[in-house]
Specification:
Shape: globular
Number of strands: 31
Number of domains: 1
Structural class: mainly beta
Largest sheet: 7 strands, antiparallel
Oligomer: single chain
Length: 482
């Protein structure tokens, strides 16, 4: 299958290069794809691809978005049509279906029509936001059908994130200005989908380097932004069932889900002479390339912010029943630590990133990195120029208790044995491959800090050694040449 390599000034130019190459019949012949549209957010880019049988098609999507903390989300959420459908009329919001209202900035006024003095106002204490920092994201999706009139995230067969519990935002009513009420904010269009990312200012050195490979049914994108690596996989996996039994084995893999568990201290009642802060945690989104949570990294070691079936990860597969499901091997949440005064009274809370643990309740994991790979070594040739790695395919597995169901394997994506001697382009058995670190070389994904109560030097050293040992395993190999 063909591959290409090039440079782009940003995500918009990368998308243009993908479109030009993926639709080129002189390169791909009958496997070339068809462009349906390429428009700014929230419409996005959608390409028509080939299904298993002749005449069958499905669609892959790409959508870039520059995210500015404190502005992008609030500008979208505070639009009147969004406030109506997601807050004022919504059952999990004010639950006032069809109620007329005015909106001015962060203040919502419910009209009673009896007199202006009887109107009720609801105001957000700060601009609503679900992002922890400014960044750029390129979201990826796979859709069963294409509808011209629908935005990117509304396409038929797209992902549903109704069960994701985001960190709440707070508002007060003019009827009781001392009591804060919490509201679980809706997802910004595109968030939740696997993505790759860069800083808000753009590529570090003014360009990104990329590699593309595809066939009729899937596309792999690898991006290098100076020291930061990202990869994406869109399309079908190679199912172990008959294709008639698993007609739509769609996979979307990104470098990050963006999802991180965070927290804040909130004073819910300010009317009392003694106020108490409550520790509130939930999912927020961090698309910076330097984000070191395991929800950012290569798919073999995909992570989730919570150990639950509906948790987000950077790897998602459509199951045979038509449900999109996250796959993850690790869980990395947040730890709430009490801050106390000299009397032992809790005066507030700190929120630290938890040490990762193996996922137990998500129920869907990825082989072979679902277990410790520390005992796996290289297979070497006597000729150093012909170094050969023991390559294991990326496999999708359901944990059904006493039975493990294997759905299939990703096309051309492998876990390489370690230690890895070099990253980037590498020839294995004469064929060109890309060796990827876990987002960047010498990656760390947990830091022992003063709030963990771990102060014994031997314990700290043992923890550091374990992190280094596991970090050496966290690599990914993509085959470019047949």
């Amino acid at each position: 299958m063909p591959y290409t390599h090039g440079y782009a000034a940003g995500f918009d130019e990368l998308i243009a290069q993908i479109i030009e190459w993926a639709t080129d019949t002189t390169v791909h012949g009958v496997d070339a794809w068809e462009l349906m549209r390429s428009e700014p957010w929230p419409r996005g880019t959608i390409l028509k691809t080939h299904g298993w049988e002749e005449g069958e098609h499905f669609y892959i999507g790409l959508m870039p978005q520059a995210i500015q903390k404190g502005k992008t989300y609030s500008d979208w959420f505070l639009q009147k049509q969004v406030l109506a459908s997601r807050f004022v009329w919504a059952a999990d919001g004010l639950n006032l279906p069809g109620q007329a209202f005015d909106a001015a900035g962060q203040v919502i006024t419910i009209k009673t029509y009896s007199s202006a003095s009887s109107n009720v106002t609801y105001s957000f204490s700060s601009p609503p936001d679900i992002f922890t920092a400014s960044a750029q994201a390129l979201f990826f999706g796979v859709f069963k059908q294409y509808a011209e009139g629908l935005d990117w995230h509304e396409q038929p067969g797209g992902m549903d994130f109704n069960e994701i519990e985001l960190q709440p935002i707070y508002y007060v009513s003019s009827r009781n200005t001392h009591t804060k009420m919490k509201f679980s904010p809706p997802l910004f269009p595109g968030t939740g989908y696997p993505a790759i990312s860069m800083d808000y200012s753009g590529p570090i050195e003014g360009y990104i380097e990329y590699w593309l490979t595809k066939d009729a049914h899937r596309l792999i994108v690898v991006v290098k932004n100076r020291e930061y690596w990202d990869m994406a996989y869109l399309g079908f996996l190679e199912p172990y069932q008959a294709k008639t039994q698993y007609a739509f084995p769609a996979v979307v893999i990104g470098g990050t889900s963006g999802a991180v568990m965070g927290g804040e201290d909130v004073v819910l009642n300010t009317g009392s002479s003694i106020t108490y802060s409550t520790a509130v945690s939930g999912v927020r989104f961090d698309y910076r390339p330097s984000n070191w949570a395991l929800t950012h990294g290569v798919p073999m070691f995909a992570g989730a912010p919570a150990d639950e079936r509906a948790a987000l990860s950077q790897v998602r597969l459509m199951l045979p029943d038509g449900e999109w499901q996250s796959f993850a091997n690790w869980v990395q949440g947040a730890t709430v630590v009490n801050n106390t005064n000299s009397s032992g009274t809790v005066t507030g809370h700190s929120f630290t990133r938890s040490e990762p643990t193996r996922a137990a309740k998500i129920g869907h994991f990825l082989r072979p990195a679902c277990s410790d790979l520390g005992g796996t070594g290289h297979v070497y040739r006597t000729n150093k120029n012909k170094l050969t790695y023991q390559m294991e395919p990326l496999e999708f597995v359901e944990d059904a208790g006493s039975v493990h169901n294997l759905f299939g394997r990703a096309w051309r994506v492998y876990w390489p044995s370690f230690r890895v001697t070099q990253y980037g382009e590498i020839r294995i058995d004469g064929k060109l491959h890309l060796m990827l670190p876990n987002a960047w070389e010498d990656r760390r994904w947990y830091i022992a800090n003063g709030r963990t109560n771990l102060i014994d030097p031997d314990s700290l050293l043992a923890q550091e050694n374990e992190i280094e040992r596991l970090s050496r395993q966290m690599n990914c190999l993509v085959r470019l040449e047949d």
